[in-house]
Amino acid sequence: MKYTIMVMGIMMAVFLAGCADTGNGNESPVNGNGYGNGNGNGNGNGNGNGNGNGNGNGTDPEYDFTTKAGIEGYINANWNSYGYNVKPTKYIALSFDDGPCAPSQYGGTAAMLTALDAAKVKATFFVIGSNVRSNKAAAQAIFTAGHELGNHSDGYSSIGTSAINAITTSLNAASQAIKEISGEDPHLFRAPNLDHGNNLNQVCKDLGMALIDGSAHSDWPGNAASIRNSVLNNPQDGDIIILHENNTSQGNTMAVLPEIVNGLRERGFWIMTVSQLAIVKEKTPEAGIRHSSFR
């Protein structure tokens, strides 16, 4: 069955600064979604950034998205409204690095959120602290739309082998910027360029954040067909997909997003946030520990 998802363009006033076209561009695989109209408003009904509830469909009080039973209950009751022929039996998380971004020739965060809304998908955004501070409206839009916010440090540089004090300063700055949006400290961290080291692991442990890797895909930028094929080539139940925000991927990921979502759904995957994936797979994102998937 073919599914059709319309990606609509959106225009809005330019923010003070955009996310750079560089940064996590050298990420590579290390080891080896969401629901309806959720709008995390910080009151426990939507975005679960920092407390493990992982951004459920915040508008449906019938389901508790902090539990496996609640998430699966929602899926059981609503899967046929997402275009599936049969109920999905596999789970996969979708994540985007490097945002938030101001509007640009590539669309920025606003256009990416429009595409995700059209696809009825919730994802995890690993945001850079300096970008949050310079694009607060875009960061707020991510949170209000019900997506999850994770820490991606305060800049684009690799910090895996930096001194503990420098790592701590960077992660704390990013967490503070996120907390000003969500009201909560993030509990998920993705290392810039997937560059790791003992010092970084220790700081994440001290700050209560799990290190989330995943399956990286060359979209900084990348050819649309190659991006699609890399995601759909061999997805596995419990995988975490790493993609990039609009200004880093130069719009190519957003352009192919409908095909990625359709392809995953055709393969029987329910697309969700990283925290939701951990919940349904009954895994614990342990602070200071690297997680490449929740298989």
N-to-C SSE string, H for helix and E for strand: HEHEHHEHEHEEHEHHEHE
Q: How big a fraction of the residues is strand?
A: 5-15%
Structural Rg: 17 Å
Give me the secondary-structure category.
Answer: alpha/beta
What is the compact description of this entry?
By secondary structure, this protein is of the alpha/beta class.
Q: Layout of helices and strands, plus pairs?
A:
Layout: H1 68-78, E1 90-97, H2 108-119, E2 124-127, H3 129-134, H4 136-144, E3 148-151, H5 164-182, E4 188-189, H6 198-207, E5 210-212, E6 215-216, H7 224-232, E7 240-244, H8 246-249, H9 252-266, E8 269-272, H10 274-280, E9 290-291
Helix pairs in contact: 2-9, 5-6, 7-9
What would you say this structure looks like, in words?
It is a single chain. With 295 residues, the protein is an alpha/beta fold. Helix content is 35%, strand content 12%. It is built from ten helices and nine strands. Strands 1, 2, 3, 6, 7 and 8 form a six-stranded parallel β-sheet that branches. Helix 2 (108-119) packs parallel to helix 9. The longest helix has 19 residues, at 164-182. The two termini are 27 Å apart. The relative contact order is 0.22. Mean pLDDT is 84; it is low at 1-17 and 21-59.
